[in-house]
Design brief:
The chain is α/β, with parallel strands linked by helices. Helix content is 27%, strand content 21%. The protein folds into two domains: 234 residues, FAD/NAD(P)-binding domain; 120 residues, no CATH class.
Length: 379
């Protein structure tokens, strides 16, 4: 049995652990702290058009795998069910498919696309609400949420027969926040004859016909997801690698050393600490000194131009990250993989917009494959 250490406690690290265990590896996941996954608002976009990605985005992590769309689809067909099964076992039921995408209302009544959503959100798919009466629950004591405006948006923007229903939770102070609803049992709506009831996110024990709206950070959906994927992780901040002859043999976390046959970097972007930006606007990978790329070029060579691009279009900055070979081994600035048993996955990778159509697809699929590649690495 091979031993794999995964560095990072987000969704990419979780999927890397799933992939490695699927191959029979003994896996240890080291997580410094929750990363950007904890900010998730309830909607997971996986991928919109695989062929379009492969044809038009040469630096995308999917393209760098050098697999055609059929092979990528086959891997997604394995990775997504494995993820949903694991999350369900860890206490979070998620529904959906990477092959189909729905639209779900958020706390403002606006539509967000998603392939995967929590089961508590699934009944709120907007097409399924048309022709049905929906009660939007508001809590009198909560001051940062307006059920009336959500109902109006559902009616005007999505042709949903929605109306607001106000309830009171006596133990809440006036001016309470949505975060104060987290974990409370959902209040019953008795005055409405609606077929479905839309609740602000955070309540537990939703009644039949009840569903949650999508959230904005800080999000109960993000908290639940992080709680599920954080089970079994070891809280540790990795601060160095031990290398022998082109192989990583161990990682250091404080006064502890974790040895393994292979390692997966799933350390995230700036929030997770996988990348670091210094005062001179230079982005670096702090743990292994790996190459950081933007549009296929080392970020250090792009220099001042990259700083201007970031200023004019902030989203461009988040396309900067590591580049990998077809086995997800990260490259140095010369384009070579310096460590044969080190793999990378998730938001630390460059070449894609992780707030876009592959926002969860990249960490799920690259995590899954990196874990499998790591588990197959010969000692």
């Amino acid at each position: 049995m091979s031993a794999v250490v995964v560095i990072g406690g987000g969704i990419a690290g979780y999927c890397a652990a799933l992939g490695a265990r699927r191959e029979g590896a003994d896996v240890t996941v080291l997580a410094r702290a929750p990363g950007a996954t904890a900010l998730y608002g309830g909607s997971m976009e996986v991928v919109e058009d695989l062929d379009a990605v492969l044809m038009s985005e040469p630096h995308h992590p999917f393209t760098r795998l050098r697999l055609d769309s059929v092979r990528l689809a086959t891997e997604l067909d394995a990775a997504i069910p494995a993820l949903l099964l694991a999350l369900n076992k860890d206490g979070l039921k998620v529904e959906g498919s990477w092959k189909s995408r729905g639209l779900y209302a958020d706390l403002h009544g606006l539509a967000r696309p998603a392939n995967l959503v929590p089961a508590t959100v699934a009944a709120g798919e907007l097409k399924g609400l048309v022709g049905r009466r929906v009660a939007v629950v508001g809590v009198r004591e909560v001051g940062d949420y307006d059920a009336e405006s959500v109902a109006q948006a559902l009616k005007e923007l999505h042709n949903v027969d929605a109306s607001a229903e106000e309830v009171s939770i006596a133990e809440l102070p006036v001016g309470a926040a949505l975060t104060d609803l987290y974990g409370r049992r959902a209040p019953a709506v008795t005055k409405s004859r609606a077929a479905l009831v839309a609740y602000p996110p955070g309540f537990s024990h939703l009644p039949d016909g009840g569903f949650e709206l999508l959230a904005t950070p800080p999000s109960p959906h993000g908290w639940r997801l992080q709680q599920a994927i954080g089970l079994g992780t070891v809280r540790a901040a990795v601060d160095g690698l031990q290398v022998e002859g082109g192989r990583v043999v161990a990682v250091r976390a404080g006064d502890k050393t974790y040895r393994a046959d292979a390692f997966v970097l799933a350390t995230g972007h700036y929030i997770g600490g996988g990348l670091r930006k210094d005062r001179g606007s230079t982005t670096t990978e702090p743990l292994a000194g790996l190459g950081v790329f933007h549009d296929g070029k080392p970020a250090s060579e792009v220099g001042a131009r990259l700083a201007r691009i970031d200023y004019l279009g902030p989203a461009e900055e988040f396309r900067t990250g590591l580049a990998t070979d077809e086995r997800l081994r990260p490259l140095d600035e010369s384009g070579q993989a310096p460590y044969e048993n080190l793999f990378a996955a998730g938001a630390v990778l460059g070449g894609y917009d992780y707030a876009g159509a592959c926002g969860f697809g990249v960490p799920i699929l690259t995590g899954w494959l990196a874990g499998r590649f790591a588990a197959r690495t010969e000692r």
